[in-house]
Amino acid sequence: xxxxxxxxxxxxxxxxxxxxxxxxxxxxxxxxxxxxxxxxxxxxxxxxxxxxxxxxxxxxxxxxxxxxxxxxxxxxxxxxxxxxxxxxxxxxxxxxxxxxxxxxxxxxxxxxxxxxxxxxxxxxxxxxxxxxxxxxxxxxxxxxxxxxxxxxxxxxxxxxxxxxxxxxxxxxxxxxxxxxxxxxxxxxxxxxxxxxxxxxxxxxxxxxxxxxxxxxxxxxxxxxxxxxxxxxxxxxxxxxxxxxxxxxxxxxxxxxxxxxxxxxxxxxxxxxxxxxxxxxxxxxxxxxxxxxxxxxxxxxxxxxxxxxxxxxxxxxxxxxxxxxxxxxxxxxxxxxxxxxxxxxxxxxxxxxxxxxxxxxxxxxxxxxxxxxxxxxxxxxxxxxxxxxxxxxxxxxxxxxxxxxxxxxxxxxxxxxxxxxxxxxxxxxxxxxxxxxxxxxxxxxxxxxxxxxxxxxxxxxxxxxxxxxxxxxxxxxxxxxxxxxxxxxxxxxxxxxxxxxxxxxxxxxxxxxxxxxxxxxxxxxxxxxxxxxxxxxxxxxxxxxxxxxxxxxxxxxxxxxxxxxxxxxxxxxxxxxxxxxxxxxxxxxxxxxxxxxxxxxxxxxxxxxxxxxxxxxxxxxxxxxxxxxxxxxxxxxxxxxxxxxxxxxxxxxxxxxxxxxxxxxxxxxxxxxxxxxxxxxxxxxxxxxxxxxxxxxxxxxxxxxxxxxxxxxxxxxxxxxxxxxxxxxxxxxxxxxxxxxxxxxxxxxxxxxxxxxxxxxxxxxxxxxxxxxxxxxxxxxxxxxxxxxxxxxxxxxxxxxxxxxxxxxxxxxxxxxxxxxxxxxxxxxxxxxxxxxxxxxxxxxxxxxxxxxxxxxxxxxxxxxxxxxxxxxxxxxxxxxxxxxxxxxxxxxxxxxxxxxxxxxxxxxxxxxxxxxxxxxxxxxxxxxxxxxxxxxxxxxxxxxxxxxxxxxxxxxxxxxxxxxxxxxxxxxxxxxxxxxxxxxxxxxxxxxxxxxxxxxxxxxxxxxxxxxxxxxxxxxxxxxxxxxxxxxxxxxxxxxxxxxxxxxxxxxxxxxxxxxxxxxxxxxxxxxxxxxxxxxxxxxxxxxxxxxxxxxxxxxxxxxxxxxxxxxxxxxxxxxxxxxxxxxxxxxxxxxxxxxxxxxxxxxxxxxxxxxxxxxxxxxxxxxxxxxxxxxxxxxxxxxxxxxxxxxxxxxxxxxxxxxxxxxxxxxxxxxxxxxxxxxxxxxxxxxxxxxxxxxxxxxxxxxxxxxxxxxxxxxxxxxxxxxxxxxxxxxxxxxxxxxxxxxxxxxxxxxxxxxxxxxxxxxxxxxxxxxxxxxxxxxxxxxxxxxxxxxxxxxxxxxxxxxxxxxxxxxxxxxxxxxxxxxxxxxxxxxxx
Length: 1378
Hints:
This protein is α+β, with helices and mostly antiparallel strands. It is globular, with a radius of gyration of 44 Å. Pfam families: EAL (PF00563), GGDEF (PF00990), PAS_4 (PF08448), PAS_9 (PF13426).
């Protein structure tokens, strides 16, 4: 008979050492009998003791499992079951791996069960399984369900608009939402049946039975926070591919009719075909692009005013060898969903730019071609940088490639798109909103985004009813009020075209003119339909006219006038009705008075009005210039009002007055009896014909303040005084008189104007205003009178301190350019005339500075010597002849300076200067003056050369170096050919002003030819003028319109020092060469790296004494990406030596000596600045004697080798701190700080121990230090840790919370650790020579997945820390003995 107790004891003795969950049992015919179980198994299965476990093993699950195990043992001798899902005694599901073997114990066979929790990876945000673990578990569980005869479905959950949610509420709120959704799905399907795959997508699996009701409840729960699209796909184990089935579930969910609302869709055969097509498209995209299956078609856009082609839209068409024509509505959404649309979009951009470049080379007409950018492009690439790069590679203007972005894309990615639109527009691209009106947020889009144009959705044309018409007309009017251009697509009929033209829609696109065509078919088709391309000048003019809102009640028209013919381009319905009602025809429009008014508007560049007499009516008509071209001008004509025949009879005007009435600008009727005035006609804003307002006195005051020059206000007020008028009429025979007053015609311009008063009847007069635009002589005469008045003024000595008032008047009112300085030659004060001459806003801009610092002189030495003579010897300098730099030109001047004495001591100097022109007026001998370029108002090339020689002479005599800067517009010839002489002249003028604004006060400026300039300065160093040059280039790049013509400037510049060349002319030539070559010194050299998504630095290598080896590098420039990885700001790095900041000598620094000689160097190494193993690429930089290094992440297969090398590099860096014999406490603190930062830990500490206590004396912590909780703590607290350290030599705790639960005694003693919320822990002992523990090195929350091995670091550093502690004890003992 068996002794069961004895067998149990023997089993326990044999297997007590098993560390993992384990039990021994005997499998009977219909039961499982427990023999022995260790505490790990009891804990795993949530059993308190062996009896509870024995009862638990009698469950159906274990009985069924026992039978299965017994059968496999007979067949194979052992059992291995993976991913076994069971429910423990507490009802919690667990996933385990089970191994079963047989053994003999006391001549009895027992079965040995080894259970190990299955290793699962979980999503950080939701706590659900990651996708890989989910797949493993799901297949195992589905297999078991299939064996049990249950049908299973795979379910996809896709949250709607997650990116927009993050942008609006922040990523923390977004993570909270994802966690909520994950827990909701987990509660429904279980921990091992759900996962978060990517971003906002979840998957789960479950039994078909009751699934529909489950999903309905689940969707309702999730909808409380966010809409969710759910797709379901039935899955048959052994037949279906799991990954493909998941994708098909996703496709089902995405097929919802409304993608923004919740719903559940089951996958079917129709979707199967769609899935196959999607797979085909994605797998053949690259081949289609390479082999030309995808072609670019072009559809013309026609302008309503000119009926010419003003734009093309580039559209992609996929013509497949297998499927034939594939609709864009099929392949574009597939590419967008897969984040591959950027490949198609950039392909189209390349094809378009190649086509335009080809046409340009052939001299053919070019119009802008718009391209579409998909929403997904902004998540896959930087479309702004990529598009600009392609366009620039073909040297095309950015305005030739408008960017179309759909309304839906805009509203789903708001923040991202706002930034992209802004960047596109800053680079000169136009941005259009495509499909305007297709979504629900069109008005919000116009409010929040600054589009250049909207494309009204074609659906409005398909449903062309009265409702659609009203919406479209209002949308056009609203867009124009915001300064946005309008285009309507989908136009197919003449009725639609006429309606849109009447509404003022600028451009039309649709089948009415042409369907999209391949490039080769496009132009023949346009020629056949007589649709020419408009030129650049026409585009500019019509773009301006297109912004006029014509849907107004006021009669208006747009005319084109070429000097002989005034042709109507557009007339709104109000004007058509007005002409019809008043029987006005072409004879009225072509009349001489009509054409002269048009000419006046063109010449004055402003709105002009006139009263026309036609038939028995008076018409107030105005013209306003809209846009001017070389051959014609576009004008806006408006009918501002009409004086009827009845009003004429009431006024009782005689025939002669009626005939001369149209020559007046303004006519008013003043009725003193009624105290009211009436506007009959006026060219002033807000004064329409027929307007009547009460209050003649108020009218007089208001008109006077708006229009009359201050000196003539008293005359104006007397003019409208009724008693004064009555006296005048009594004294003369006629009933009218005229006076002349100066009247404002623009912001800064007044002209003499005739005001004629006509007495109509008692208490009623008519005021007629005629502005004389040719009254310069009046102005000149008046100015001379004022000057004579000013010269007769004297000083009144009765005003207290008369001398002070005289001096202040001299400073404020005189034209003497006075200045005074202290004994250090620094400006103390200046007169107003001095400030006005140089253009300074206040004296604070120069006070405290010397002439040398301001940079007014070619050579500072003569000025310095003259002023020192005044200050040191007390001698005056009278009329010293010299030159100064002013407004970019060298000006001859005569300067006088006098010493200021106080108690016999010179305390400063006072002086003044006059220009050569003033000296000539005084009949002094005149010298030749530098010739000034008429277009740019800077030195011309002939006068620039002698001045450059002067700077060069000053350098060679006095060592005063100078910088030559060459600046030019590289595409000047192209712009000149396209836009003509008027544009060219204004462009040169604007370029010169931009250069003078930035550099004119300290440099001389000259124009060599066209838009090529030279700047010379001896005040600024190379880096300073480099910064100023960058500002100039940026200002030039921001010029997008000249003379009303849109343009895109491409400035270049280069610099050279005088010391770099034999003479000044060679220095200029060197600057020119650098502007055209790779060697230019330019901030453009930096710009190409600023947005580079790779870390990059520019530095100047420092060589050893022999000059044959680089020993360090001075950092000149670092981009944002490097700063982010390094964790510092620019101020901490720039100008410093690399090895001052970091220990070590990286390979990229060591090899930079080869790069500076012109060789490109590349390799790989560990970089301590970025804490990463990197590939590096080094070459010579554009800056002299500098190199640029770009880094990329090294993700090679030899990860372990890289980890060893990286750890070794960081070990030596930390070790270097500990080997510092001059510091003890600081050395250990620095070493711990470095160690903590390298391993990304939250704490790095050294705990010292003696026989009974442990103490933290050295610690580095990110936030809260341990020190307060671990000061002279009983060593017994650490005893549980010590046991593990004695066994394994190191303590690794990956999950501190679980570890504490496994060791209750530790949990109780170290409960204070809860406040630190630590996740992991690493402890390595520091041992002395006798192998006794003297301290512990501790890391918490460290990162173990990177290039650094924290455990190896601690093991190697432990002996170094031991030596440092021992040295510290030795030094303290020495101090005690001393």
